[in-house]
Amino acid sequence: MTTKYLLIVWLCLYHCTYAQQKNFTIPDSLLSKDYEYFDKNIRYKEKDNVKDLLYAQSWLTKAKKEKNFSQMAMAYKALIYKTQKKLELKYADSIVIAAKQTTDIELIGSAYMTKGIVYYDRKEQMKALDNYLVADEYISKTNNRYLIFKVKYVIGLTKLYLGFYDEAITLFKECANYFKKENDRAYLNSLHSLGLCYNHIGNYKLCSQMNQIGLIAGKHLKSWDMVCYFIQSEGVNQYFKHNYSDAIQKLTMILPAVKRKKDFANETVAYFYIGKSYSAQKLQEKAIPYFKKIDEAFQKQNYIRPDLREAYELLIDYYQQQNNKELQLYYIRTLLKVDKLLNQDYRYLSGRIHKEYDTKKLLQTQRDIEQAMKYEIVCALSIIIVLIVIIVLFICRHFRNKRLFKELMNRNPEVIKSVVSSDSSTEIELGISPEVVTTILKNIEKFELKKKYLEKDMTLGKMASILNTNQKYVSKIIARYRSKGSIEYVNDLKIDHIVELLKNENKYRNYTYKALGDEAGFGSTQSFTKAFNNRTGLSPTYFINKLKDQSAN
Question: What is the rounded CA–CA span in Å between residue 157 and residue 296?
Fold first, then answer.
């Protein structure tokens, strides 16, 4: 068949949803071929081969046309090796349906075993075990010892995965004894699985013995991929024997080979025990990236098993110590999902496994963290709002100060004009004769012109004495004609005097507050700064600095 023709056929096949499409036609070059020809020429160990897929399709079409159900079952099995992952279960169902049309209990049992293997690869172990047990019912009635022990092996694998280690050990021992003379790869697989079981029940010595036997046999048989798995098994075993450096070295060594095989399950296990080995040596920063790989496998492949669960507990503890509530909460939520999945597939084992973080504690911790995060958000928003308010107030204050400074620079000193006459309404209002009011106002004018208000500790009594009157009259007249209290009136005059000095004479801008207060006759620095702010709306510092900036410009 030409390459061009093969390509055309492949494009047709690629766009087909199922193998049993009605419009598939066997190419002329394959019309005369028998079933044995298709079986012998399909390379089962190679995936996605165009020629093999064409042969499998032709095999199935021929069997359907001839209503040969046993050959249909075998053709579907070939398609499982050659098709897309998502179609494997569909073909597995078809194998069982076709096999049941025959009276061959061996074929029916084999069909159920194939379906179980598909479920096992999909990590649906409970469904896998159900199909294996049905397969065993059929195959145990035959004389095909190879199939009998193959079923024992796949049942053992599922029991290993689900935690029935003692039962699995019995099955793997039987398989190892049988396959040692019958099938090299099956023998190595049985030894490897037996070693894993011994590790799980804590018999690390027997685990190392199985790994050593497997390594020697694997090298002798040149089964290098199995050599890799025996090294990995021993790496995990060394972790439990507290030989952490050796565990890291062995597990790191096999990772490239496991990745090339796209065996994400064993890759994840290697990451976990590398992380555990670093953690046991108090090297948490090195351990954490490996524990995160467990979560990657769960998120991408939905893969988890009971011993890997501990990675989440360690991640939660680590981020709790780091006070990283966001990541702590993420791993708590994920661990709740993990436990839900484990409880579905590992009901037997989940009742025995030690959980530092049980569901009730996880949910409570989750609520506590969520509440704390809400509180932090509220606090953060409150701080932001306060900062915004402060900034707005600062900006408003800045523009207000600029306005007040400008007004102050344009302000002229107040001048009180004497009232030379008064009417009866003034006398009624103040209870003082107009003549007395006029006299006091003239004295106030002299008081201002001669800057008597600059005298230190100017009190109401002292001012009344200077104005030749009593305190009651002074208070009433200042309130009437200046709309101020007596003390405020004096303080304002003092501050106006200082403002003019600062505006017109540079030397005063270098005075201390105490010196400026003494110049104006204030009794204390505090009294001066308070009076300055009350009169101008500005602090002395701001006013003086602006004057200096203005002079510099």
Answer: 24
Please, what is the Cα angle at 184 between 181 and 187, to 5 degrees?
Answer: 80
Dihedral Cα 483, 485, 487, 492, nearest 10 deg: -20
C-alpha 169/C-alpha 187 separation (Å) is 14
Render pLDDT for 475-521 as a digit per residue (tens, 0 to 9): 888 888 888 888 888 888 888 888 888 888 888 888 888 888 888 88
For the purposes of burial, counting CB atoms within 10 Å of the CB of 206, is it exposed (0-12), middle (13-18) or buried (19 or more)?
middle
365 with 319: CB under 8 angstroms? no
> Tell me, what DSSP letter sits at residue 355?
-
Entry pTM: 0.57
Half-sphere exposure of 414 (CA within 13 A, CB side): 15
Which contiguous run of DSSP H or E holds residue 129? helix 125-139
CA neighbor of 364 nearest in space, from 337, 313, 321, 329: 329
Q: Are 156 and 164 in contact (CB under 8 A)?
A: no
First to last CA, the chain: 94
Query: What single DSSP character describes residue 370?
Result: H
Helix segments in 183-309, DSSP class H: 184-200, 204-220, 224-240, 244-260, 264-280, 284-301
- Asked if 456 and 528 touch (Cβ cutoff 8 Å), the reply is no
Three-state SS for 110? helix
Q: Which region, left, alpha or beta, applies to residue 270 given φ > 0 means left and ψ of -120 to 50 means alpha?
A: alpha
Give dist(CA 209, CA 86) in Å, integer: 39
According to the model, what pLDDT value does residue 47 have? 57
Spell out the domains of the chain, with CATH numbers in brackets: 447-552 (1.10.10.60)
* Residue 341: CB atoms within 10 Å: 16
Fill in the amino acid letter for 511: Y
**pLDDT of 201-241, one tens digit each?**
999 999 999 999 999 999 998 888 899 999 999 999 999 99
The answer to whether 75 touches 60, Cβ cutoff 8 Å, is yes
User: Is there a contact between 253 and 231 (Cβ–Cβ < 8 Å)?
Assistant: yes
**210 touches 189 (CB < 8 A):** no
Measured CA to CA, the distance from residue 194 to residue 203 in angstroms comes to: 11
Rounded Cα distance, 441 and 417, in Å? 8
Closest by CA to 142, choosing from 108, 180, 181, 191, is 108
Distance, in Å, from the CA atom of 102 to the CA atom of 276, rounded to the nearest integer, reads 52
Q: Which long-range contacts (CB under 8 A, 24 or more apart) does 14-22 make?
A: 18/87, 18/90, 19/56, 19/57, 19/60, 19/76, 19/79, 19/83, 19/87, 19/91, 20/60, 20/64, 20/94
